[in-house]
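ok here's ABC-2 type transport system ATP-binding protein, seq below lol
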Amino acid sequence: MTTILSIRDLRKTYGDGFQALKGVTLDIQQGEILALLGPNGAGKTTLISTVCGITTPSGGQVSVGGHDIVTDFRAARSMIGLVPQELALQPFETVLNTVRFSRGLFGRPRDDDHIRSILRKLSLWDKKDNQITQLSGGMKRRVLIAKALSHEPRILFLDEPTAGVDVDLRKDMWETVAELKADGVTIILTTHYIEEAEAIADRVGVIAKGELLLVQDKSTLMAQMGKKQIEVQLNEPLTRIPEALANLDLAMGAGGDSLIYTYDTKAARTGITGLLNDIAAAGLTLRDVQTRQSSLEDIFVDLLKEEAA
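and the structure came out like this:
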């Protein structure tokens, strides 16, 4: 695959000495969807702002389609569409004119068919003559996406794009994202909705305290780091874990009517057979047994715990 965005040792230090980015290095391939996860203040927005030329880097290099973001800014920026967190729109301008104007800012010739296509895809065509102030928060978010796509970028940054958007609108947006990916557009999104990253991303990056902790193929990440839980449901509830099972690192379920055992899927021995034998030997009667694969959210939380330790 072709690398469309190359980031090397990117650093950003503010005047008060705060290091927002600490040597981030990352290659992003053309046509992929990368989900960037991290807590508030982790550096996600600073990374996007720096690549897009909104924030000046303190060090390192970034190239977009071979164009350096500092020495060849105009060419690099023309390849990027940005959907920011903030709903920064002219309140009394119409939807249609707002999107048309954004295309003109990049020096692209007027193309009413392209603008019409974007507005239809985002369910904005029937609102084209409405002033921005007449729109709901979700519709304003859609206008931001339309603006970002108006000049036909090859890379689209989505910074918390579904914040404040209802479930139906969110699903529509991700359908649009899938269509853009099919057209070869590279998409980098930050999100707090981890289930969305799990559903649509090709790769997942985790950033904390200005450092990129990992970037991994989503399925590989879950296979390598994922754990499973086995929940043994009991006929009679417990008040505490029996002494005979104290060395098994068990947790008691809500209400005391189950025991939860977490095991590593990569381990040669999971210990499940011994667990069930020990439970039976302790005089407990099983009612049911269920397993659960850890989610991307579980992995994300575990990584942040390790970083804080």
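fwiw Residues 167-182 form the longest helix (16 residues). kinda neat tbh
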